[in-house]
Specification:
7-stranded mixed sheet; 6-stranded mixed sheet; 30 strands; binds 2-acetamido-2-deoxy-beta-D-glucopyranose
């Protein structure tokens, strides 16, 4: 349809002319990189303030060689119009802004412009109609052991430069279209935009893991290569910053590009939701029974909570109106009384008293709290903030069993109880191996033993953890394969120590009631967590209660709803267990988000005497 090439231009470019398909080649990096090319002919499909997008007028039949090309250079865009067919010389380059990112193939230093014809029709390729659909599971042939395989970064795309297989691997799919003008039909937003307005979406092609909020959940090692980021609009406008998961965007047309660690589509103009997702999420569907028949235990990473946190009232309100005032709340990211002031303060009494006070004002429900302040700046997080895990608990329902607050360096131990009650803790609460290397510059886990207040007091244990973060990992679309999963070795050690402590309790009493919960900064199925489960003997409560796979998430990162927060229980607590994640925060725009994690609430029967174990 676009074979209109003026004879003069063909003559001028005939000797060394390269097609766009030849420039892209059938691999990630151009076979012509760092070479000058002449007489490159293409239809101008789009422009932005950095350059011009071309489409070949002589496409080959090879689906692995993109027919699109970005021409980088300041003045060309002023001399051509969308719809022009041009011939150009330039230099083939591979560009990236960071060595963990993938490369963009581009033509730079355009010169010898010849406009061959104008006003040609420009028709975008509809993804899934004029192209294959994006692969739904695998990212790259170089991801040994899957995209979360360990060891990480055993290959680099930029050195292996594999031949593209766009029907099997997601990165190969997007690379095979790079530079092209495409349309996504019926796009839904699957998260909130980042600070630059970049917004992840899914199209009308096959997508796995769609959840009830309209986002896309990671299912095992399937981290959803079929989703795509929408970057800065070509016309210089800005994507809205107040949109969220589940908003319906209609069709999006733009050019396929690679920058800042991700393939992305630069839309012709700013995204506009046509239908906004409705903003309410119901409270947990069950309440505490107040006795051992149904004790509610929750887990919540409350995001750097300190006495003056603007989101403190929101946390209190969520605890009351959505979590329905659970009997025990395992909190993570509780900062000290002076927040991030780096002033030697380590106590969190004021932080926790403030939260407890707000809850009481809202509901009349009275909470106590317990925690162990660490040594100044030894537990990671923001300098001076001294984040730690802490417990809120309702003294009308549960009490600490033989309380004996440990100090920051006191090593908790599992002891045989003197009164025939089975295992007990040396410190209650007490930290687990606080001086081990695994916890250097990281939050220490806090073990506690509890007794139900009403009726025959039943004993149970909790361990509240916050494992080291994934910060510094490379992106799902980045150069190292499998991507760098930063902190995984440390999380492995942390999981092992935690599991061995719990295993000691269960070794003394296989029917012991144990709950491990918190922000583990890792996915079920990846080594730290699979190790934790197998070594401890605990069960994943998501499995026990059968939460739908697509609803197993507590966090939104890039394209994926994912589960970083978990609750694991001993087998003796599985009968009649209830457990729900409340997706109040992942499914929100920035302003309406309270924390960056969702909270989870369980109800567990602590009465049982489990003879078969
Ligand atoms: C490529 O083109 C540039 C700009 O015209 C020129 O400076 C350079 O020498 C050329 N390189 C080669 C290898 O021809
Ligand atoms: C292209 O179309 C525009 C508007 O229809 C017209 O003004 C212009 O003359 C056309 N240019 C050429 C080169 O045909
Ligand atoms: C969707 O929400 C945005 C932001 O709150 C608002 O500006 C816009 O008008 C809404 N659009 C529709 C279609 O309701
Ligand atoms: C406040 O912190 C101090 C020092 O850690 C501790 O002794 C005290 O018991 C705390 N108060 C409350 C109400 O927990």
């Amino acid at each position: 349809m676009l074979k209109v090439i003026a004879p003069l231009a063909v003559a001028a470019a005939s000797v060394a002319a390269e097609t766009i398909a030849q420039i892209n080649g059938n691999t990630f990096l151009s076979p012509l990189r760092n070479q000058n090319v002449t007489g490159v002919v293409g239809l101008v499909t789009a422009k932005n303030n950095q350059g011009v997008f071309l489409r070949s007028t002589e496409p080959d039949e090879d689906p692995t060689t993109s027919e699109g090309l970005f021409v980088f250079g300041g003045t060309l865009r002023n001399n051509v119009q969308v719809g022009d067919i041009i011939s150009i010389d330039g230099r083939v380059e591979e560009y990236r802004s960071n060595n963990l990112h993938g490369y963009l193939t581009e033509l730079t230093g355009p010169r010898n412009l010849q406009v061959i014809s104008s006003n040609n029709t420009v028709t975008p390729l509809v993804i899934g109609v004029d192209t294959p659909s994006p692969p739904t599971e695998l990212f790259s042939s170089l991801d040994e052991g899957g995209v979360f395989g360990a060891p990480n970064a055993v290959n680099l795309i930029s050195t292996s430069n594999p031949e593209l297989d766009p029907t099997t691997y997601g990165l190969d799919f997007w690379e095979s279209l790079v530079g092209e003008l495409v349309t996504i039909k019926d796009a839904y937003q699957i998260g909130r935009p980042n600070q630059f307005g970049d917004t992840w979406v899914r199209g009308d092609w096959k997508v796995t893991g769609v959840n009830s909020q309209g986002g896309v959940t990671m299912l095992g090692s399937d981290a959803n290569p079929e989703t795509i980021l929408i970057g800065s609009p070509l016309d210089g406008s800005r994507n809205p910053s107040d949109t969220k998961m589940g908003d319906y965007l209609g069709d999006i047309t733009g050019t396929v590009y690679n920058a800042f660690g991700f393939y992305r589509i630069l839309p012709t103009t700013r995204l506009t939701p046509l239908v906004n997702s409705t903003t309410d999420f119901p409270p947990v569907s069950f309440e505490s029974r107040g006795t051992c028949r149904g004790i509610t235990v929750a887990s919540y990473n409350a995001r750097n909570l300190e006495p003056r946190s603007p989101h403190m009232p929101g946390v209190a309100e969520q605890i009351v109106t959505k979590m329905l005032s659970p009997d025990i709340i395992c909190l993570q990211e509780v900062q000290d009384d002076s927040g991030e002031a780096n002033d030697g303060v380590v106590t969190a009494n004021l932080t926790l008293t403030t939260l407890v006070g707000l809850i009481e004002e809202l509901s009349g429900v009275v909470y106590d709290f317990t925690e162990i302040a660490g040594l100044d700046n030894q537990d990671g997080g923001a300098p001076g903030g001294n984040i730690r895990v802490a417990y809120l608990y309702r003294p009308d329902v549960v009490e600490l069993y033989q309380p004996n607050l440990g100090g920051p360096l006191d090593v908790n131990e599992v002891l045989e109880g003197a009164n025939g009650e089975g295992p007990v803790l040396k410190f209650n609460p007490g930290r687990i191996e606080p001086s081990a290397d695994a916890w250097a510059n990281s939050r220490k886990p806090l073990a506690a033993m509890w007794k139900t207040v009403k009726g025959t007091g039943k004993l149970f244990f909790t361990v509240n953890v916050h494992f080291t973060s994934k910060g510094g990992s490379s992106t799902l679309h980045g150069d190292p394969r499998p991507p760098i999963n930063n902190g995984i070795e440390k999380r492995n050690d942390q999981a092992t120590i935690t599991a061995d402590f719990i295993a000691q309790i269960l070794a003394l009493d296989p029917a012991a009631r144990m709950i491990l919960s918190g922000d583990m900064n890792e996915f079920v199925g990846v080594a730290p967590i699979s190790t934790l489960l197998s070594r401890s003997g605990l069960l994943d409560l998501e499995d026990v209660v059968g939460i739908q796979p697509a609803e197993r998430y507590t966090y939104l990162f890039d394209n994926n709803c994912q589960a970083l927060d978990h609750m694991f229980i001993s087998p003796s607590l599985s009968r009649g267990a209830l457990y729900e994640h409340l997706h109040l925060n992942t499914w929100q725009n920035y302003n309406n988000q309270v924390s960056d994690h969702d909270m989870s609430v369980a109800r567990l029967n602590m009465c049982g005497c489990v003879s078969k174990l």
